[in-house]
Design a protein that fits this description.
This protein is an all-alpha fold. The protein is built from eleven helices and no strands. Among the domains are: 31 residues; 155 residues, no CATH class. α6 packs antiparallel against α9. It is globular and about 75 Å long.
Amino acid sequence: MLNLLNKRLLWYLALPIIVINGWALLQIFQYFGRIITIAVSATLLSFLLDYPVLFLEKHKVKRPRAVILVFLVALVIILVLGVILIPLLLEQLTGFIEKFPSWLASGNQQLESFDQWAYKHKLPINLTLWTNQFTKSLSSQLQDITGDIISFIVNTLGRIFDILITIIITFYLMLHGDRLWDGIFNWLPNHLEIHVRKSLRQNFQNYFIGQATLACLMGVAMTIGLLFLGTPFGLLFGIGIGLMTLIPFGTALGVTLVSLLITLEDFWLGIKVLIVIVLIEQAIENFVAPRILGGFTGLNPVWILVSLLVGAQVWGILGLLIALPIAGFVKNTVNYLRYYSEFGVAESRYENKN
């Protein structure tokens, strides 16, 4: 009992040191942000592309050939999407920015008509003041968001050298990544090395494969639904919701935002859009998502929100994408270390317990 208390006391004393080291790491990450962004992006891409490589290896294709084949197919897909899809999205984004002021005016007219109807029927409703403040806030926020998106695209196109370096590193990691990771993990104790390898692969690969699959399904389904309803800028809104699915809680936020925007232009069309995309979102979230994700991180929703806020503060969009798998990895590793320090068991018995 006393030994257990001493171990817990050591953990409590170590917590301030861990916090200070974490703060120092954040400063290092921010200083070397560009280099780390390239390395992290290449690592994530190699993780994702490793699945089809392993599939080909199971069918007796040697790894170098499998890597080259998957890499070339991925480049072709990206180039085709870049040539066909991105110009259409930019065109719709430009059109939306031009139309948005008239949508706000239309929304204000609809709300004024509703206020007049409520006044005639002696209903205690007055939305004018609230809606004026809301539309001003929404307008400024959307302008900031669209400005950020455009600047992000411009900056991405302007960093051709960074993109090329990322592609080269991705290809190298697909071919020889095991040697690199072996050199890094060999510094860890044997039992911790086994756990870290498994936990990193599980959290990152499962999360990103799952989220990417959900994002594709959500984007395609939402785009088809919006175009079927004759929604203006349906391609932009559908793919936008799909991209927001990559971030936890992003789907609900995207559905709400798109429904509000459509309602500004046409109230009844906005209601139809809300019903259809909520049905699509619920069908995918309830029937497809559990099979793909399975709630593998085991994180409390509060910690998920905290992880997203920290990720956005440190690395922006990339931080939002990697915040949850990192948080899941940290949680699993801390639990493992605590269990190992108390009971002195290795990875296999820890996994059996969990």
